Amino acid sequence: MSSRTVIRNGLVITASDEIHADVLIEDGRVAALAATGTPAAESWTAEKTIDATGKYVIPGGVDAHTHMELPFGGTFASDTFETGTRAAAWGGTTTIVDFAVQSVGHSLREGLDAWNAKADGNCAIDYAFHMIVSDVNQETLKEMDLLVQEGVTSFKQFMAYPGVFYSDDGQILRAMQRSAENGGLIMMHAENGIAIDVLVEQALARGETDPRYHGEVRKALLEAEATHRAIKLAQVAGAPLYVVHVSAQEAVAEIARARDEGLNVFGETCPQYLFLSTDNLAEPDFEGSKYVCSTPLRPKEHQAALWRGLRTNDLQVVSTDHCPFCFVGQKELGRGDFSKIPNGLPGVENRMDLLHQAVVDGHISRRRWIEIACATPARMFGLYPKKGTIAPGADADIVIYDPHAEQIMSVETHHMNVDYSAYEGKRVTGQVETVLSRGEPVITEREFTGRAGHGVYTPRSTCQYLL
Asked: Residue 338, CB half-sphere, CA atoms under 13 Å: how many?
């Protein structure tokens, strides 16, 4: 039984075009687009019609950096795959790429199987996985080849967190060499963790225990140094490199320099670095702990460099690094010792709206909004054109977006499973109205109509963004 839906009278916005067009959806995929009012569009019949007059019709967001149920610092991220993907849908995101974790002493396969088990049957939207590589050895390197063949085509390494996720330069080089051969993409958490640990120890010895010191010890120069080192190791290996959660202007400069040299080096930033700052980390009464994440929030003056990087394409993607921990009982683990505060912020529900606010504020164009939030993450991680665009053959992951609605972000109204909002009280213009995932309504006129288990695992091809 074929099912057809028509979206009429909206402004269809993709990374490349803006057109007043109607969209025909058939059996979960985009079947055709035609200019509104033309005989072709008028001839379509369907069981269901969605009127998008005065609204944008945009591709569902692709959030390429989330951590649902992540174990960290003796606790777990507070969003499950069920609650986290539901919140993502409320915010106009229809695909997440989460991180499966290899534990030291265990295989990549064990980590991937564990994350598949967490997600299977629980997701409201489609999902895929990156693989965190914590233990580089000959067996791990062989497994990387197998995972690429299976559609897990990106591998994250950490220059931070010694004793947990940390890889040394030799391990990083070996993994990069392997990815140069198998087509995988290395994603790098670029901070000099060895040096940071020295500064943490010294700060605590001086009695500097408040959350704001988290930002002071994780220095921008140590992010820039690690970014530079990762770029050079990737150059030696002949491998592409994707630097996650870039927060500092000095790190942006390293990426820009590498790209000017024609290297396949890419950068991601996150809404928290664009909209929040060390002012939040310094909030009194331990409220600053809500904003502890790594890389840390920076002084406000770094924001201009990040926006410029997004405009010049030195930064290509905005993801959330969604890794929520409740203030009560989780962030509070670090009272009296900032180094024990679980690192991470909630944001999977806020990204599309915050970036639309950036359009309103004149930081980026409408098409660039879709490019950095939908199309490029899909291309970067081998999901395009199935995801990230509205075109014949693409999955009908489509958002009807009201660009005029006003909302105030708040813990009172969000759907993430966390007891605070990082953007509490922030007024933004623009709001998701209806969300389709493979043609199925997940949000219908601001009501959740989806279900756990609708979302399916989505294997990925290799990076489609290489120079």
From this structure: 33
